[in-house]
Specification:
The protein has a single domain, classed as Aldolase class I (TIM Barrel, Alpha-Beta Barrel), CATH 3.20.20.70. Helices cover about 45% and strands about 10% of the residues. The protein has 16 helices and nine strands. It is of the alpha/beta class. It binds iron/sulfur cluster.
Length: about 350
């Protein structure tokens, strides 16, 4: 029996993958990718059944002005440069009112990390949205934003998290994780918090009962070893806290980014890498219930294949995703649940709407 077949049999029998085993799976380049995907699909079915879930959400991009200007991002721009925008109170309230009309259950406030924003700024913005939609989950504040706001306002991370929650924060964004290996972060996002700080903020949030997503942005400069190191840290945190709602794999969109244009990053993950990322995350992250397939990053057809390779969630309707559109994605703005239903039923699965924390509606 080949080593890959043996590993897959062991996983089916309940064995927890080691990092070395996961790395072997991640490096497969031949037809055995389908064996790995099939095993991930079986484990998905055992764990969460045949539902494909989605959340009715709306992105709210308050600003694209960003102190970090990460090389893999086509959205964030330095303060004072051309093409920047910054919403004020009226625009934020108007966006929240629009979301209410659309019956969304989650507002995803996804913005640049504005260098002038303090904790009070975040409290105000969350409060304006909360006023308009008190029952919606306000999903915002990455560990980098929390750290920045806490520093600007001279409070601890814990204090900052408590105040954001009091203002109306529902769940924390596990964004800004990118690849949780500092040597990679130095290339792709040198101004963002380091790995230890990202993990510390997430642990602090989970300890307070604030749940978060976990993300991985893959396909730029990192190696398979880095992806596995990233997964290992996520699995360790989840063992400790149980606070992650899901893993959101974010395939690198290279077209309009400095890293790619300067020849320092690849043109993104291949289809093989996307499938293996979904499947190996399902197999390695045995303490995660949900693996989201981000249609805005991989496209609708690949998203359906991702649902056959360990994924069980299609993320949100979004209504607008300037972050992906600015990076070059051409179908990232809105996905009608009718299209999601077609994707799900076509592979014998049932589409169900969920809340941010995966209660089915
Ligand atoms: S990825 Fe986020 S932090 Fe980095 S430049 Fe883009 S908006 Fe700013």
């Amino acid at each position: 029996m080949t080593v890959i077949r043996q590993i897959l049999n062991d996983v089916r029998a309940g064995h927890r993958l080691t990092g070395e085993e996961a790395l072997r799976l991640m490096k497969v380049r031949d037809r055995r990718i389908w064996d790995i995907a099939l095993t991930a699909d079986e484990i998905r079915e055992q764990k969460v059944g045949n539902v494909v879930s989605y959340v009715r959400n709306q992105n709210l991009h308050v600003t694209n002005i960003c102190k970090n200007v990460c090389g893999f991002c086509g959205f964030g721009r330095p303060k004072g440069s051309e093409g920047t925008f910054l919403y004020g109170e009226d625009e934020i309230r108007a966006q929240a009112a629009l979301a209410r009309e659309r019956d969304v259950t989650e507002i995803c406030m996804l913005s640049g990390v504005h260098p002038d924003f303090t904790l009070e700024t975040y409290e105000d913005m969350i409060g304006w949205v909360h006023d308009a939609m008190p029952s919606a989950d306000i999903h915002t504040a990455s560990p980098d934003e929390v750290t920045w706001a806490a520093q600007k306002s001279g409070v601890s991370i814990e204090e900052a998290l408590k105040r954001l929650r009091a203002a109306g924060l529902g769940t924390l964004q596990g964004t800004g994780a990118e690849i949780l290996v500092d040597s990679v972060r130095e290339i792709i996002c040198p101004r963002k918090v380091d790995t230890a700080t990202w993990a510390a903020v997430i642990r602090a949030a989970h300890k307070l009962g604030i749940r978060s997503t976990a993300t991985i942005m893959y396909g730029s400069v990192e190696q398979p070893e880095d992806r596995i190191a990233h997964f290992s840290l996520l699995r360790q945190i989840q063992d400790e806290t149980g606070g992650f709602t899901e893993l959101v794999p974010l395939s690198y969109l290279h077209q309009n980014t400095a890293l790619y244009n300067e020849g320092r990053a690849s043109a993104g993950a291949t289809g093989r890498e996307d499938i293996l990322l979904f499947a190996v995350s399902r197999l390695f992250l045995d303490n995660f219930d949900h693996i989201q397939i981000s249609w805005g990053k991989v496209g609708i057809k690949m998203a359906q294949l991702g649902l056959c390779a360990g994924g069980d969630d299609l993320g949100g309707t979004m209504f607008c995703d300037a972050v992906s559109v600015d990076a070059g994605a051409d179908e990232a703005d809105y996905l009608d649940p009718k299209t999601m239903e077609r994707i799900a039923t076509d592979i014998g699965r049932e589409l169900r709407q969920r809340t941010t924390t995966y209660t089915l509606l």
